[in-house]
Specification:
binds 2-acetamido-2-deoxy-beta-D-glucopyranose; about 30% helix; 9 helices; alpha/beta; Spore Coat Polysaccharide Biosynthesis Protein SpsA, Chain A
């Protein structure tokens, strides 16, 4: 039976109990509630089509960098490998980079050979057999959490980033991650926000998918970082929660279920809006959204040469 506590301040608390629909026939009882098309199907035993089970064998890295990428974006991945995704970009710190892919909704079969070759060459692709669409991004993030849980649970930190960002891992590591922490997550923190109910928006979340009118605090999807222990905790709790189609809000829902809070980052460190590139400004921030890989490539040589006062 579903019970709700009503909380009008002036009335005594009243327990409202809803009778379950009378199960007068077995077919009616067995029928699960229909899944809304925007709700990612989960849990489901998605299979790894591309995997790197031994990538962590040399010892746990300091940071696992999980980059959400689209199967067809070979060029974007090549640029990210040469710029902020370079595993040797932070001297003395072991970074392990992996791109997260689903199946191309149209050209899955056609891209298979190319992706296998890219995977053999770079050993940094993870792909599972769900459709790679905007409303399935939660599945992509959970694939990353699953990989860390199964193959690299001792990593000190995990960062999830989108492909259209500028990232400064050196500043992230030195300024925010040392010494290693537990139960820690930070990024651009959203508080007191709620789902967008209008179907015209890319961020539409129907009531059938998430009935609450507010989200718990969460970190904006373009770039957030968390201690390695949280990957397993989030992955485990996600097995028991209804998924929603916004991956970043969903991570907030998992943290809420776990009773773990998010840590604010100082203003201007994780930027959800585009910022004009300036050497010394970019050397003192972690993330800027809306930088396409080719935009990053254009500023990277200058950024690398930068000597700015710390
Ligand atoms: C049982 O419930 C199902 C689904 O609501 C319905 O289609 C079916 O006709 C019902 N059967 C009987 C015997 O009431
Ligand atoms: C990554 O950075 C290192 C150290 O700066 C550099 O030697 C190497 O060429 C870079 N790798 C790529 C793929 O750009
Ligand atoms: C998400 O992926 C599943 C599994 O491939 C697929 O059935 C579903 O249609 C996809 N959802 C969306 C909204 O693309
Ligand atoms: C959703 O709302 C209910 C009732 O107000 C509350 O108990 C629950 O914690 C909320 N869930 C989230 C994820 O905020």
């Amino acid at each position: 039976m579903k019970c709700q506590l009503s909380l009008p301040l002036l009335l005594p608390p009243l327990l409202l109990c809803l009778e379950p629909p009378s199960p007068d026939n077995a077919t009616a009882r067995a029928a699960p509630p229909p899944r809304h098309p925007l709700q990612p199907p989960y849990p489901y035993p998605y299979r790894f089509l591309l995997n790197e089970p031994h990538k962590c064998r040399g010892g746990p890295p300091f940071l696992v960098l999980l980059v959400a990428s689209q199967p067809g974006d070979t060029a974007g991945r090549a640029t990210i490998r040469q710029t902020w995704g370079n595993e040797s970009s932070v001297p003395g710190v072991s970074i392990l980079r992996l791109f997260l892919l689903g199946l191309h909704p149209v050209f899955g079969r056609e891209l298979r050979g190319t992706l296998e070759e890219e995977s053999r060459l770079h050993r940094d692709l993870l792909q599972q057999d769900f459709l790679d669409t905007y409303n399935n991004l939660t599945l992509k993030t959970l694939m990353g959490m699953e990989w860390v849980t199964r193959y690299c649970p001792e990593a000190a930190y995990v960062m999830k980033a989108d492909s259209d960002v500028f990232l400064n891992l050196d500043y992230l590591v030195r300024r925010f991650l040392l010494p290693p922490k537990k139960n820690f997550i930070t990024g651009y923190v959203y508080r007191n926000t709620g789902p967008i109910r209008h179907p015209a928006y890319k961020w539409y979340v129907p009531r059938e998918v998430y009935p609450n009118n507010t989200y718990p605090p969460y970190c904006g999807g373009p770039g957030y970082v968390f201690s390695g222990d949280l990957a397993t905790k989030i992955y485990m709790v996600a097995q028991k929660l209804p998924l929603i189609n916004m991956e970043d809000s969903f991570v907030g829902i998992c943290l809420h279920a776990l009773g773990i809070g998010v840590t604010h980052s100082p203003m201007g460190v994780f930027n959800m809006y585009w910022l004009q590139y300036k050497k010394c400004r970019f050397s003192r921030l972690v993330m800027v959204h809306h930088y396409q890989p080719q935009d990053v490539l254009a500023i990277w040589p200058d950024f690398q040469q930068t000597k700015c006062p710390r």
